[in-house]
């Protein structure tokens, strides 16, 4: 139908449009009823465009042009009659003149062709036209398929561009971290150089002490020679030196007690060394350091014992010859100073040994708490401590410092195998059951105060993780409405009051019964279900950067499920 027919403008141009239809039917013997749509979408510009009447009849015009040729008079006449613009259509007289010209140009054989020959010719031409039409339809379908492939490639290109942007952001973050690590390495190098300087200073001080000891030994030799000369005088003054002997005895007892303490410390240290030798390489460096300190201590103790012997001899000499030789008094003061210095050194060594004992005790405590790590060659044994307040099932456990948090599962069953030895929940009241499912059990391993405590979480069947020594819960469901949650909450306290804060944005995907794990500043939430009935499990993995408070989507897991086990 021409465009002017919809506006009720009838006239000769409309008759010429109908004449073009008649000519097309006469030439093709097929009524053009299966037309293309009046509009189409341009894939390059993504715009809707209108088709002309000739374009809509392309499947009929193409066979006609292939049969008669594009320059044939009948083809050009049909094209002019089917123009959208009425002014470009021929008039009646022009159409009659064109028909006369075509009749005059027909070759004589065509004029004398009988009916059967004409029908055969038209049949052959129609078959060729149909084959060409089928080929055109196939090409059109291929073109549509290619257009769909182009659209898919464009969408994939957009996704790749987004991934490139995310990769660029992560690369910038990694570069910033690398710069921070470089600054830390510079600081460590400076500290190492400073430690080298301090070590060289200590070595020089030790050399000076060795020289002082040599000088004292020479003085002791001279004193010993002098004592041999005065031995006869000492025999005469024995009765007068009783009090002095008692003082010396007290000094000897004090030194003996110090030596006994040192020997006990040495025995204790050797026993601790024997125990620590059974541990793995995690404490090897500390043990080597302690052995070096022990060697230094034994050498210092040997020096102290020799110096104490010299001091005793010097004190005896000074007491005998006090009235006769002023030089011996000076030597006595020097020896007293040496003794005080050595006593200070012994006190420092004793203090150092106490610190080592504390370190060894803490190491032994760690070894007792972690037998599977520090004593791998010993058989593992379970140790029962205290009864739990509830018996969790399919729950998660998080360790922060010296506290263990258990929750996120079914907390209202009685006696679940592997869940502890205490009685659990079991109330028939619905509110009690809901509170039980919202509960988080906190266990303190320090032994100070109550060991078990119950904390009420904002949701049920949530995921727990530790990030920067803080407890974080994610997902779950509302205990009253059962609606699946996408919130992320962090545990805090204010005047011994439990507070759940929400400083982070919500998860992109709401989850029921997911699992979570924390590593440094990252929180990863894995799998779960979109409904509380577990009918739609997820394989989605999402990561939260707690410093920038942004969510990132990681690669999905091979299979969807709820509450998987996670570990680093």
Question: How are the SSEs placed, and which strands pair?
Answer:
Elements: H1 12-28, E1 39-42, E2 47-50, H2 53-56, H3 58-68, H4 73-81, H5 92-105, H6 108-111, H7 115-229, H8 231-236, H9 242-276, H10 284-320, H11 326-369, H12 371-374, E3 396-400, E4 403-407, H13 430-437, E5 439-444, E6 452-456, E7 463-467, E8 470-474, E9 488-494, E10 497-501, E11 515-519, E12 522-526, E13 541-545, E14 550-553
Antiparallel strand pairs: 1-2, 3-4, 4-5, 5-6, 7-8, 8-9, 9-10, 11-12, 12-13, 13-14
InterPro entries: Kelch-typ_b-propeller, Kinase-like_dom_sf, Prot_kinase_dom
Organism: Geodia barretti (Barrett's horny sponge)
GO molecular function: ATP binding; protein kinase activity
Write up this protein:
Residues 1-111 form the Protein kinase domain. Keywords: Coiled coil. It comes from Geodia barretti (Barrett's horny sponge). The protein has 568 residues and is of the alpha+beta class. It has three domains: 3-152, no CATH class; 230-374; 396-553, Kelch-type beta propeller (Neuraminidase, 6 Propeller), CATH 2.120.10.80. The chain is built from 13 helices and 14 strands. The strands form four sheets. The chain has a four-stranded antiparallel beta sheet with strand order 3-4-5-6. A four-stranded antiparallel beta sheet has the order 7-8-9-10, with no helix packed on it. α1 crosses α4 and α3 packs across α7. The longest helix is centred in the N-terminal third of the chain and has 115 residues, at 115-229.
């Amino acid at each position: 139908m021409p465009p002017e027919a919809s506006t009720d403008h009838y006239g000769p141009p409309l008759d010429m449009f109908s004449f073009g239809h008649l000519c097309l039917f006469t030439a093709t013997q097929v009524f053009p009823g299966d037309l293309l749509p009046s509009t189409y979408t341009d894939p390059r510009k993504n715009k809707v465009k209108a088709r002309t009447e000739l374009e809509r009849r392309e499947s009929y015009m193409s066979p006609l042009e292939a049969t008669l040729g594009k320059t044939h008079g009948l083809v050009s006449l049909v094209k002019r009659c089917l123009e959208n613009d009425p002014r470009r259509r021929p008039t009646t007289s022009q159409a009659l003149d064109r028909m006369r010209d075509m009749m005059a140009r027909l070759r004589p054989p065509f004029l004398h062709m009988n009916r059967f020959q004409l029908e055969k010719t038209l049949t052959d031409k129609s078959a060729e036209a149909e084959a060409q039409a089928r080929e055109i339809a196939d090409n059109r379908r291929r073109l549509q398929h290619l257009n769909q492939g182009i659209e898919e490639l464009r969408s994939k290109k957009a996704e790749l561009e987004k991934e490139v942007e995310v990769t660029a952001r992560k690369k910038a973050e990694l570069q910033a971290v690398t710069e921070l690590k470089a600054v830390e390495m510079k600081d460590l190098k400076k500290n190492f150089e400073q430690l080298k300087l301090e070590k060289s200073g200590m070595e020089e001080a030790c050399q000076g002490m060795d020289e002082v000891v040599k000088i004292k030994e020479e003085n002791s030799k001279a004193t010993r020679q002098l004592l041999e000369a005065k031995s006869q005088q000492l025999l005469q003054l024995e009765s007068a030196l009783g009090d002095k002997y008692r003082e010396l005895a007290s000094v000897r007892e004090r030194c003996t007690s110090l030596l006994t303490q040192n020997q006990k410390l040495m025995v204790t240290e050797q026993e601790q060394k024997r125990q620590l030798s059974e541990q793995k390489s995690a404490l090897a460096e500390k043990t080597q350091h302690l052995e070096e300190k022990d060697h230094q201590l034994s050498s210092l103790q040997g020096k102290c014992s020799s110096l104490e012997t010299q001091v005793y001899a010097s004190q005896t000499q000074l007491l005998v010859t006090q009235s006769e030789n002023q030089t011996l008094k000076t030597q006595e003061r020097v020896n007293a100073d040496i003794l005080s210095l050595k006593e200070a050194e012994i006190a420092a060594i004793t203090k150092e040994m106490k610190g080592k004992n504390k370190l060894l005790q803490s190491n032994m405590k760690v070894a007792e708490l972690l037998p599977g790590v520090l004593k791998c060659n010993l058989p593992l044994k379970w140790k029962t401590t205290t009864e739990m307040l509830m018996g969790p099932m399919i729950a998660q456990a998080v360790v922060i410092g010296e506290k263990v948090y258990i929750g996120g599962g079914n907390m209202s069953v009685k006696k679940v195998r592997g869940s502890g030895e205490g009685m659990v929940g079991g109330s028939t009241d619905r509110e009690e059951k809901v509170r039980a499912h919202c509960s988080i059990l906190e266990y303190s391993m320090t032994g100070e105060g109550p060991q078990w405590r119950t904390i009420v979480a904002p949701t049920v069947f949530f995921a727990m993780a530790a990030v920067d020594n803080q407890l974080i819960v994610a997902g779950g469901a509302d205990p009253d409405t059962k609606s699946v949650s996408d919130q992320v909450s962090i545990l805090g306290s204010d005047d011994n009051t439990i507070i759940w804060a929400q400083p982070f944005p919500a998860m992109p995907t709401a989850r029921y019964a997911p699992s979570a794990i924390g590593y440094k500043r990252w929180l990863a939430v894995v799998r779960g279900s979109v409904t509380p009935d577990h009918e739609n499990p997820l394989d989605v993995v999402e990561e939260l950067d707690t410093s920038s408070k942004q969510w990132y989507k990681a690669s999905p897991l091979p299979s969807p499920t709820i509450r998987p086990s996670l570990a680093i």
